[in-house]
Structure formats: C-alpha cells, structure tokens
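Suppose you are handed only these lines of text.
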Amino acid sequence: MPWSTSDRRQRLPRNWRHIVARIRRRDKDRCQVRLADGSQCPNSYGAIDHIRNDDDHRDENLRVICDPHHAEKTGKESAAGRAANRRKQQAKFRRTEQHPGLVG
Ligand SMILES: [Zn+2]
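From them, the structure of the protein bound to zinc ion can be written out as follows.
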C-alpha cells in the first residue's frame, strides 16, 4: 500500500487490539467522561478515546468513551478546526466596512 494513502488508522500500533482490550478491562468498559455535575458517564464502551494526542497510544492517553461522547468530541474538534480556519481567513481578508448585521 502506498505511503501517501496512510491515515490515522494505519498508524495505530500493531498491538492496538491488545491495548484496546487492556483499556476496556481497566476502565470496566464504562465511558470515562465526567458529566457537568461531576459524575461519571453511565454509558458503556463505544470507542477508545485518545485523551490529548491522537498519536500517543500509551495507556495514560487512552480511555473508554461511549459513542455519543465520542461523536461529540470528534464533532467539537472538527468544529474547532473549522472555526480556527475561518478566523484565519477573516484575518487575511479583513474588510474595513462594518458588518451588515451591525448597521442600523
Ligand atoms: Zn459517555
């Protein structure tokens, strides 16, 4: 397979399957996300979450996360990325006239 098509999945370590099993056992197959009231999410395993760095496959960077929280997290991350790109674009093409929403 050509290197150019390599993506995140292919960069997972060879023993990823074993790591997943270990993390699921450690976290008792329960989502590790803390809810707003400080309690632990009651949902069960949906995916393995990379807490900080997607390329860090050490146990301390991994945890069990439920599907809804996983979707929320990945959604937020891409939304944040889009917002950052938008800000960059705006900075690049900043206009001097007032935003139409502010006129009148
Ligand atoms: Zn959850």
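What can we learn from it? The chain has one domain: 9-92. The chain is about 35% helix and 10% strand.
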